[in-house]
Amino acid sequence: MSPSMKQFLRESAETVIIALVLALLIRGFLVESFLVQGYSMEPTLHDGERLLVNKLAYRLEAPERGDIVVFRYPLNPKRDFIKRVVGTPGDTIEIRHNQVFLNGQPLKEDYILPDRYPRNYQPVTVRPGTVYVLGDNRGNSEDSRIFGVVPIENIKGRAFLVYWPVSELEVIR
């Protein structure tokens, strides 16, 4: 094998190794892909869409009301869920006839699907270190109404981009 061919192969191998290491670091610490499974976040997110999740977001700041977060499901940490934060530490959340009340005031939510089955849920005060999450499709969502508040350490990150299918490419906020 010629010296130039050896150099080419060595440089190619180095490039592939560096690319793999960078990809693993990025996926492990910065950004992760997430597949939406189910209909709990419609009309905002749809079954089969792929998202990018910012894994650094909550190492630098606390989750905010309105953020769409991916978290380890409290009843089975091997599963990931995606929901919208509606209550942060110190907030009191109450649901009457499918209207969410935040600290006694109706929460304006122009992103939800109407639920045909009015339900009431007792007030919950969000404890420090936790958030209250709901799906946008309330009639088809297992969320804090069922499993309670989510510990902030269970949150993997904030969804920020729908990238698949390409026709649905969109920055999330």
Keywords:
elongated, Umud Fragment, subunit A, alpha+beta, single chain, four-stranded antiparallel β-sheet, eight-stranded antiparallel β-sheet, 21% helix, 173 residues, 12 strands
Characterize the structure shown:
There is one protein chain. By secondary structure, this protein is α+β, with helices and mostly antiparallel strands. The chain has one domain (33-171): Umud Fragment, subunit A, CATH 2.10.109. The protein is built from 3 helices and 12 strands, in the order H-E-E-H-E-E-E-E-E-E-E-H-E-E-E. It is elongated, with a radius of gyration of 20 Å. The chain starts with a helix and ends with a strand.
CATH topology grouping: Umud Fragment, subunit A
N-to-C span: 55 Å
Q: Runs with pLDDT <50, length 5+?
A: none
- Major sheet description: 8 strands, antiparallel
CATH class category name? Mainly Beta
Q: Tell me the CATH superfamily.
A: Umud Fragment, subunit A
- Global geometry: elongated
User: Roughly what is the average pLDDT, rounded to an integer?
Assistant: 87
Integer-rounded radius of gyration: 20 Å
- How many E-type strands? 12
Helical segment count:
3
